[in-house]
Amino acid sequence: MKGSLTAEKGWTKGPWTHEEDKLLREHVSLHGESRWNSVSKFTGLNRSGKSCRLRWVNYLRPGLKKGQLTPLEEGIIMELHAVLGNKWSTIAKYLPGRTDNEIKNYWRTHFGKREKPKHNKNQEKRKAKVQKQLKQEQQPQPQEYDMIKSSLYQEEIKNETKPSEMQDNKQQEIMGFMYPTIEHQYSLSLMHREFSSSFLDTTTADDGLWFSLWDFDEPQFSKCVMPNQANFGAGGDLMQNQDKTSCFDVAYDNLSYGKYMFD
DNA sequence: AAAGCTGACAACCGCAAGATC
DNA sequence: GGATCTTGCGGTTGTCAGCTT
């Protein structure tokens, strides 16, 4: 498959060249992410609209993350796939910077060849319930986003610290480290919104959405802590080292691995 | 060293839904 | 209201590099 191959309509197919990428970037910066079928007309690029869109979405779009998925992202994919199935674009919405194609490839590479797990009746029930709920609910409106944003900012500027809140604040601090931007936190709140009512209330430590997220066999993780869900509207995943020195290893996005030390 | 295998990734295809004419 | 166009999604295939035999 080389760049010179052409299809029936004469479109160039195969890998994109740097020159083609440059033309596409210029086009999008001028005309935005739409009218893909007119790209060839404006730029002289001999690529179909579909091909241009795919190249942009999966490779050229700003903000895309490169490199391996983090353990957290892998966990999210596994959990969401268990509930949503092959809804790659939906799953991708909860992983900022990752594309549906990337997630789909990841899943097929790592799990696609495995045998289908035995059917779990309760899981199937919950899955059906969540899917029904997802159908009914529209995507969050901008004003909802602003509301969440605003409430998160209010949390940030809240200075009062009561002794009983100390632990919550500590966990909140960690969450802030793991999910550094409003967008990340919003993403989590969306996940909670969609799953909590039908999932967490019936879940056990063995098969729940959040509890199983970090259920690694790796010995360095000996304990999972559930932060106060009220803080962000979603559970988080904190891992304590086996030596219990209050040193938390966290991984998130491009921050890669970091350590969070308690006082 | 060479052939075969496997994982990772990019890209294409067909279809369906929505938008536009 | 129907035809056509555009866009987005999920499935599939092709390529390449690294590993194994």
Commentary on this structure:
By secondary structure, the chain is mainly α. 47% of the residues lie in helices and 7% in strands. It is built from eleven helices and four strands. It has helices at 18-31, 39-43, 49-60, 71-84, 88-92, 100-110, 121-136, 142-157, 166-178, 182-195, 229-232; strands spanning 221-225, 238-241, 247-251, 257-261. It has a two-stranded antiparallel sheet. A two-stranded antiparallel sheet has the order 3-4. A hairpin with a 5-residue loop joins strand 3 (247-251) and strand 4. The longest helix is centred in the middle third of the chain and has 16 residues, at 121-136. Mean pLDDT is 56; it is low at 1-8, 115-180 and 194-263. It binds a DNA duplex (21 and 21 nucleotides) through residues 1, 7, 13-16, 34-37, 48-51, 53-55, 57-59, 86-89, 100-102, 104-106, 108-110.
